[in-house]
Amino acid sequence: xxxxxxxxxxxxxxxxxxxxxxxxxxxxxxxxxxxxxxxxxxxxxxxxxxxxxxxxxxxxxxxxxxxxxxxxxxxxxxxxxxxxxxxxxxxxxxxxxxxxxxxxxxxxxxxxxxxxxxxxxxxxxxxxxxxxxxxxxxxxxxxxxxxxxxxxxxxxxxxxxxxxxxxxxxxxxxxxxxxxxxxxxxxxxxxxxxxxxxxxxxxxxxxxxxxxxxxxxxxxxxxxxxxxxxxxxxxxxxxxxxxxxxxxxxxxxxxxxxxxxxxxxxxxxxxxxxxxxxxxxxxxxxxxxxxxxx
Length: 294
Ligand code: GDP
Fold this sequence. Notes:
The protein has an 8-stranded mixed sheet with strand order 3-2-4-1-5-6-7-8, with helices on both faces. The chain is 54% helix and 14% strand. The chain has 12 helices and 8 strands. By secondary structure, it is of the alpha/beta class. It is elongated and about 70 Å long. Guanosine-5'-diphosphate binds next to helix 6.
């Protein structure tokens, strides 16, 4: 995960550790390396700039400059700022209400359907009774895909083939959940190649009907800053409650993970780390920062 970012940061850290005495000039050199590492990883330039401003302000404090190992102190500051950038604490799901609803939204191919299945499995393991709801009326294959996942997982799926009205699906799913004692509904909604007005309108109507506790945006981390642009649009339209970053096992460079919170102002709640149904992890800023620093 993020190998290139990690190796570039480790280079910068080697230089920091090698510094006997910290001056404004040699620190500027080391921080320039960190900046390049972040930009190469596709971190949003404003996020990278603000990040380095904060590191610099702290690093030039007297107690750092006068310490025995100033380079090591700067590395600690970078770690702490990385954790802060990623959101500091793990943001849990809000599953209040009975049943609670989760809307899974995102572009086509982002990993929405797979992640719906992964999340259902995780919640089931935690003792919940999830219901998967196929709310994509445009692609019959999407209903089939979700139903197959549900069967593999042993979790019921509500997939009324032929129903073309998303709101009718939602009402039917809520009734089904009540009569079958399912306490969390996971709505796998339609995606498009690009966010467009009809899609947004449909999701808004669905949201206003089911009053979801969570609106989770599924984002392909491999798309870097573009993922953050997509997130900004979805958030303006729907007021998402958080994101799930998928495909962190692939060639994601880290830009989406590092820019998301600062740009969108919402937490990353989970990360997808593979194609298997177990490959979903709660997002922990400290663990992620440690992984990035290697
Ligand atoms: P949707 O169109 O948003 O519903 O996307 P899908 O759930 O169909 O996923 C698209 C592709 O991405 C599938 O081949 C999934 O197996 C794959 N995928 C989803 N999440 C991950 C992940 O975390 N890692 C990897 N490597 N592949 C993933």
